[in-house]
Design goal:
It is a single chain. The chain is mainly alpha-helical and 73 residues long. The chain has one domain. It has 3 helices and no strands. Helix 1 crosses helix 3 (47-72).
Length: 73
């Protein structure tokens, strides 16, 4: 069952609160990527598990995102 954009936004909002970031666009992308990864690993859609995955990879995503914004500007 595919998730709606509001579901991804809910994940992004939870992530933003825990990671103290305002970059919702990046968070939505991370939520989608994390969901794909998590499903392959555990076949779960547990939001807390997704949040822990997002936080685990947050510094890498932030670095890559910053690099992308720099290269596009």
């Amino acid at each position: 069952m595919p998730h709606t954009n509001s579901w991804y936004m809910k994940i992004a909002t939870k992530f933003n609160k825990k990671a103290d970031t305002k970059r919702t666009d990046v968070s939505v992308m991370m939520a989608k990527a994390s969901l794909i990864f998590t499903r392959r690993q555990t076949c779960t859609t547990n939001t807390d598990h997704l949040i822990s995955e997002l936080l685990h990879h947050a510094s890498l995503y932030a670095y890559l995102s910053d690099q992308l914004h720099v290269s596009l500007s």
